[in-house]
Design brief:
CATH topology of the largest domain: TIM Barrel
Order of helices and strands: HHHEEEEEEHEHEHEHHEHEHEH
Number of helices: 11
Number of domains: 2
Strand order of the largest sheet: 1-2-3-4-7-8-9-10-11-12
Distance between the termini: 28 Å
Shape: elongated
Number of strands: 12
Length: about 350
């Protein structure tokens, strides 16, 4: 049994057949998450006989790094991680002006089917466990520690739909918040969803003030259905009502992510529709020029179109940013490195 990703209480339950004092669970918890030990033999605060028994029965497994690519400007590093069952996921380190941000995946593959995204090309293999998502953070933090740095913020924007893996994602957030693990404020997290309405409303009631980011990408229902199949299940008015409810409940500004695709959603008419849709909300818009996926056949708009779209929203007093590109030379967009690995395997 792999105990990586278990809470102290869960470790204590696992230890019951060993008939040891309850404080042993705390010692093992500390050894795994603070001292970063993955071998019971190295836990010298445990009796030698117990270490042997634990090693015969339990494991502490973290993923292996299958590939690591660093951008030429040194600001981005992308990790391809492999798990024992063959699952592969991507995790990204982004050195931002405000600190080191990591982007973690929540599923091996994705079932949302968005036409512009490489993560969906092979569908969904499985959900990641709470511990596997946590391991992504540890792999990157170990990398940063070697350079005297640490993780400052975390975005759940990698491969997968976080709210379709709800329990494991919330469990991950709670573990990252634990003082004995990373001790990160919930306000340091941003969760991105394609619009899973029940999940948005449920998350609003968790008491976890994480920032919510909605993958919007179209200002009307008809266009959204064409590029995001999930829109057929959760209509745009329903999704917007849920994001408004989230902002009201948590007091956190919602970010609407909008990938600009040439000739699809980057025109002045779409800018006008988007402005009307988000006007008056506790929200901002993050424009993302498309990072083309060869299989999709879609194109990135020119700089003039990007600037015109952004300028129109600004004139309507909509808070708007254009995402800075990071890691384009290392397949940093969601799913690209994983797909390259699958093709070559």
């Amino acid at each position: 049994m792999n105990i990586w990703g278990l809470t102290q209480e869960e470790i204590q339950t696992v230890l019951e057949p060993f008939h040891v004092p309850s404080y042993r669970a705390k010692q093992i918890h500390r050894a795994m998450y603070q001292e970063r030990k993955t071998d019971f033999g190295e836990m010298t605060n445990l009796p030698k006989e117990l270490r042997g028994r634990l090693k015969d029965t339990l494991t502490i497994e973290r993923p292996s790094v299958l590939d690591l690519r660093r951008s030429s400007d040194g600001r981005t590093a992308k990790f391809l991680l492999g798990f024992s069952d063959g699952a592969t996921v991507e995790s990204v380190l982004m050195r931002q002006p405000y600190g080191n941000s990591i982007c973690v995946s929540t599923q091996d593959g994705c079932s949302m089917g968005c036409v512009f995204c490489a993560s969906t090309l092979h569908g969904l293999s499985r959900n990641l466990t709470r511990g596997e998502i946590l391991a992504e953070a540890y792999v990157i933090d170990d990398y940063l520690r070697e350079q005297g740095e640490k993780i400052d913020t975390c975005v759940l924007m990698g491969t997968g739909e976080p709210l379709m893996n709800y329990e494991n994602v919330v469990g991950f957030l709670r573990m990252m918040h634990e003082k004995e693990i990373f001790g990160m404020s919930y306000r340091s997290f941003t969760l991105s969803t394609s619009g899973i309405v029940p999940g948005i409303l449920r998350l609003a009631e968790e008491g976890l003030p994480v920032s919510l980011s909605l993958s919007l990408h179209a200002p009307n229902q008809e266009l959204r259905e064409k590029i995001m199949p999930i829109a057929r299940k959760y209509a745009l008015p329903e999704v917007i009502a849920a994001t408004k409810a989230y902002a009201k409940k948590t007091g956190r500004r919602v970010t609407y992510e909008y990938i600009l695709i040439a000739g699809v959603n980057d025109g002045l008419e779409e800018a006008k529709e988007l402005s009307r849709l988000v006007s008056g909300q506790l929200a901002s818009v993050n424009l993302i020029p498309l990072n083309p996926v060869a299989e999709a056949g879609l194109k990135r708009p020119g700089l003039e179109s990007i600037e015109a779209f952004s300028a129109y929203l600004s004139k309507q007093h909509i808070p708007v940013t254009v995402r800075r590109e990071m890691g384009t030379d290392i397949d940093a967009a969601c799913g690209q490195l994983r797909n390259a690995y699958r093709r070559g395997r």
